[in-house]
Specification:
This protein is α+β, with helices and mostly antiparallel strands. It has a domain of 129 residues: Pnp Oxidase, Chain A (Roll), CATH 2.30.110.10. Helices cover 32% and strands 32% of the residues. Strands 1, 2, 3, 4, 5, 6, 7, 8 and 9 form a nine-stranded antiparallel β-sheet that branches. The protein is elongated. 30% of the residues are buried.
Length: 200
């Protein structure tokens, strides 16, 4: 697994990781690429923790890289933010403090399948659409577009299904600091980062 993850920050509970993986934000899909440089794409992904599903433009060079590599890593990030030494009570006590960055991240690694069958592609697109349209006053559905248009659009994409073999979560949220330092960080943190720290 590619994630440097000291024990103090390691998160293995699926119930803590899934909300990060299912939040409405872009993920990163990475695999071995040509010339030793990773092939990367930013894209929305849908997951239940066992499979990760999305799609790429057929013209995206990462399609060929995925076909060659056969494996990929999907990466999601959550709350994050800079931590100034001035947030720490320890700064006033002994001054032996340095800046850092608090963050949440999840990596899912495994073999990938490329999907080109129109019916399965439609399921992928519909699943992503339904997920992101849920809760909207007038949710849009794939069926709202003309069928010929939908079929033409499907020809321009390739589906990706990653089967999760290894799942690694990291929540670096000042857990390694004394409680007084943690309280100082929470006081200066953004609302999202503060909420993540309070969730524990």
């Amino acid at each position: 697994m590619s994630l440097y993850n000291p024990p103090a920050f390691r998160e293995e509970r699926l119930e803590a990781l899934l909300p990060l993986m299912q939040a409405p934000r872009l993920a990163l899909l990475a695999c071995h690429g040509p010339g030793g440089v990773p092939a990367l794409s930013h894209l929305p992904l849908l997951t239940d923790g066992r499979r990760v599903v999305g799609h790429l433009a057929r013209a995206n060079p990462q399609v060929a890289a995925l076909r060659a590599a056969g494996r990929a890593i999907a990466v999601w990030t959550g709350a994050e933010g800079y931590v100034s030494p001035s947030a720490y009570a320890s700064k006033r006590e002994h001054g032996k403090v340095v800046p850092t960055w608090n963050y949440e991240a999840v990596h899912a690694e495994g073999p990938v399948e490329l999907v080109e069958d129109a019916a399965r592609l439609r399921e992928i697109v519909a699943g992503l659409t339904d997920h992101h349209e849920a809760g909207r006053p007038e949710p849009w559905a794939v069926e709202d577009a003309p069928e010929a248009f939908v079929q033409a659009q499907l020809k321009g994409i390739v589906g990706v299904v990653l089967t999760v073999e290894a799942l690694s979560g990291k929540r670096k949220l000042s857990q390694n600091r004394p409680e007084a330092d943690q309280a100082g960080v929470r006081a200066q943190a953004s609302p999202a980062l503060r909420a993540a720290m309070e969730r524990g």
